[in-house]
Specification:
This protein is of the alpha+beta class. It has a single domain (about 5-85), classed as Transcriptional coactivator/pterin dehydratase (Gyrase A, domain 2). Helices cover about 50% and strands about 20% of the residues. It is globular.
Length: about 90
């Protein structure tokens, strides 16, 4: 079995603006952490791929970044739930 070389996850949103907001927040995090994922996005979707390019594989920092990205999504989702009751 080949060793994993990256972490990748696709995310789905209600529209382009939500996907863009998510990507922008990841961009801010990436700059602060100095750890930059590959991101593709479009209307209602984003795919994030993490890999430490220097070693062409996974490092502890990739898993830390993935956890922080999941927290961004959770924070955004909490806002969607509040908004839906207005």
């Amino acid at each position: 079995m080949e060793e994993a070389r990256r972490i990748q996850r696709s995310f789905w949103f209600r529209d382009f603006r939500e996907a863009l907001t998510f990507v922008q927040e990841i961009g801010e995090l990436a700059e602060a952490e100095r750890h930059h994922p590959n991101i593709t996005f479009g209307w209602g979707n984003a795919t994030v791929s993490l890999q430490t390019k220097k070693i062409k594989g996974l490092h502890e920092n990739d898993f830390i970044m993935a956890t922080k990205i999941n927290r961004i999504l959770a924070r955004m989702a909490a806002g969607w739930r509040r908004r839906s009751f207005i």
